[in-house]
Inverse folding.
């Protein structure tokens, strides 16, 4: 049996994506395992969820660090100690330094609730609705020094419905996120998706456009 890819998940909040990543890892046939969940605050609801799933947790409490550089160094040390070879940021509400990102190049993923490159930053659901977009969704991307700007591996796409609100769209986007984030972790663990010097490869060829998961039925 080949070794499982050790994955760490880094959170700030409720951790529903973390839970989806863990549950997929705990299903039979997974090629990756979640070795640790790390939060930047004690209050992160996902810490309890992770513990209930049997995953070791740590907190790197952001308020105890004087600046970004010292926090990032502590987070990097916690990740190194975990033995993770892939790091999934999942609702992690801090911007990481260019140095941290460079140190983890090709091993750092994030999920963003929009069809990148549209709507980098916050309030993505309201912005997609205000723009009258026909579709919206979420993107799993490798993290680079540009905020929400790294190469996208997979997108979950859904159709915006008449009468949608930011909350109704958010619920359907979350359901899609819980499909695509574990899927990308699995593709990386199986070697189907690879990062080579800043370029994402899918089955040996450069990935020209994100892989798409279409789902209009998501609750
Ligand atoms: C998700 O919408 C994700 O796209 C964004 O933060 C949210 C995290 O939700 N980065 P959860 O904590 O995984 O429930």
């Amino acid at each position: 049996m080949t070794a499982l890819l050790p994955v760490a998940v880094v959170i700030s909040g409720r951790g529903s994506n973390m839970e989806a990543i863990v549950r997929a890892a705990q299903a039979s046939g997974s090629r990756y395992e979640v070795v640790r969940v790390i939060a930047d605050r004690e209050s992160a609801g996902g810490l309890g969820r992770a513990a209930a799933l049997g995953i070791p947790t740590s907190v790197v409490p952001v308020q105890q660090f004087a600046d970004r550089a010292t926090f990032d160094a502590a987070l990097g040390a916690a990740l190194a100690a975990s033995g993770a070879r892939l790091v999934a940021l999942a609702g992690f509400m801090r911007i990481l330094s260019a140095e941290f990102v460079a140190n983890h190049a090709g091993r750092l993923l994030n999920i963003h609730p929009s069809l990148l490159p549209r709507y980098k930053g916050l309030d993505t659901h309201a912005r997609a609705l205000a723009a009258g977009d026909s579709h919206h969704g979420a993107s799993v991307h490798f993290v680079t020094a540009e905020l929400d700007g790294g190469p996208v591996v997979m997108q979950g796409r859904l159709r915006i419905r008449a009468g949608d609100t930011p909350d109704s769209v958010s619920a359907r986007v979350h359901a899609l996120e819980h499909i695509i984030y574990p899927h990308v972790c699995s593709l990386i663990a199986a070697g189907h998706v690879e990062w080579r010097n800043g370029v994402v490869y899918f089955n040996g060829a450069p990935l020209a456009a994100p892989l798409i998961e279409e789902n209009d039925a998501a609750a």
